[in-house]
């Protein structure tokens, strides 16, 4: 909602720039999509490695420990 209000303010102040932002937003989102997918993959990989490294300690702690 805050972004929409900022866009409305920009529309009143400088309408050509607001229309340019409206047209370019999907293109920028599409160009950034691979980086978001890589970020999600790296997050999952690091979570997996962290779990794998901590596994011996969790096994040695026993079933009743939290």
Average predicted local confidence, pLDDT: 92
One letter per element, helices H and strands E, the order comes to HH
Query: End-to-end span in angstroms?
Result: 41 Å
Please tell me how large the radius of gyration is: 23 Å
Low-confidence stretches: none
Instruction: Work out the helicity level.
Output: over 70%
Total domain modules: 1
**Estimated structural class:** mainly alpha
How many individual β-strands?
0
Strand content: under 5%
Count of helical stretches: 2
Largest sheet: none
Rough shape? elongated
Walkthrough of the structure:
- With 66 residues, the chain is mostly helical.
- It is built from two helices and no strands.
- The protein has one domain.
- α1 runs antiparallel to α2.
- 0% of the residues are buried.
- The model has no long low-confidence stretch (mean pLDDT 92).
Concise overview:
The protein is mainly α and 66 residues long. The protein is 89% helix and 0% strand. α1 (2-13) packs antiparallel against α2 (15-61).
Write the layout of secondary structure elements.
Layout: H1 2-13, H2 15-61
Helix pairs in contact: 1-2
Name a few traits of the molecule.
single chain; 66 residues; mainly alpha; 0% strand; elongated
């Amino acid at each position: 909602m805050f972004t929409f209000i900022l866009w409305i303010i920009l529309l009143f102040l400088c309408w050509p720039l607001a229309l340019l932002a409206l047209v370019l937003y999907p293109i920028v989102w599409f160009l950034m999509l691979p980086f978001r997918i890589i970020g999600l993959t790296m997050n999952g990989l690091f979570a997996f490695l962290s779990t794998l490294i901590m596994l011996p300690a969790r096994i040695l702690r026993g079933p009743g420990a939290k």
